[in-house]
Amino acid sequence: MENISVISPLSTRIAAQSHFRTLRLPSPFQPRIEALAKTQDWYDWAGYKAPNSLWDSELEYFAIRSQAALFDISPMVKYRIEGPDAEACLNRITLRDVVKLKPGRVHYTAWCDDEGHVLDDGTLFRLTDEKFRLCCQELHLPWLLDSACGFDVRIEEETEAVAGLALQGPTSFALLRDAGFAGIEKLKPFDLADFPHENGMVTISRTGFTGDLGYELFVETSLALSLWDRLWQVGEHRGLRAIGYQALNRARIEAGLIVANADFSTAEHALRADRVRMPDEIGLGFMVDVEKGHFNGRAAIIKARQNTTMRHVLVGLEIEGNIPAEHAIVYHRKKREVGLVSAAIWSPTAKRNIAIASLSRPFGDTITDDLWVEIYAMRELKYERLMKRAKIVPRPFIKLDRRSANPPADF
User: Fold this and answer.
1) Predicted confidence (pLDDT) per residue in 70-88, tens digit
2) Of 20, 67, 150, 323, whose Cβ has the fewest other Cβ atoms within 10 Å?
3) Does 34 appear as a known binding residue?
């Protein structure tokens, strides 16, 4: 007699409940973060349990701008790319000229499909002549492996093997120095170096996502908690605080930095043909090095530039009033819909109501006047429609001298 398994409705419900109780992946720093989490405000970051806030998102933001803030970036997708052809392979894949990226340096870059539409953006770390680390938002391993066909190169995802911390804020340099990272003062913006820690090494780069003085630290997961403790012990005297994404997001908007699938749709996630973007349409045209030779999307980008067929432009807006224009529609002369706000805050540092918006050309390009945003504000338990004037302003919205000071100031 054939053996048939029967699943009862009760067992189905139990299985479903068990599924919904399944925890997200823990970060290597999870024990320390959980101990500090007063708000219990979590979100899913690439399958990991990550904090939106830990104690107070507004005060966490001010920790970035006035002292030092520690943010767990372990869920960020990380790839190790190495081999004799690693440089040539990455030059074929990404927009910027990797030959110009020397060992011990980092650059911000992006990569496109064959039609010139952005697949993702991220940071490329050149660890040695033949070893690189690529950090980004989305999963790209199959695409990277396909793109590496014909090159003598090894590509491996190392997200789970490498823990990461972003240490940002004016006291971040002094904190690292006091923690015993000798020579940290030598790192200029986008420099990286290895430093001893326990029985291994930690890679520290002078990079970040806040527009402030800051560093990113990468270490193998077995050393993650000891690295946290090393920073936390010294940080007690430097105002160190752990933060969640809400605070980081405020800082990155002030810095005019964009987030994939928030400020633009990546080519693999866009469901409609008019949602994809070329680098020039999201403010990344400066990356495109057409002189370096062939790379993914080169012909399509050049053609679009020559034929002026790019249809969108990403702009910074300053908006009257103090009500953030989150997801507001942008109008020309209060009538014609010309774009959408993707990120907006009242900036405590700039003391301005700011936003990042995608507009349909020629608006934001040759037509920049008489722009308005439509805001719905809750007043006495009723939403009121407000039309507020907006003007295009340069990004970043704030520029802090301490970010690029050499050597960093001792706050």
Assistant:
1) 999 999 999 999 999 999 9
2) 20
3) no
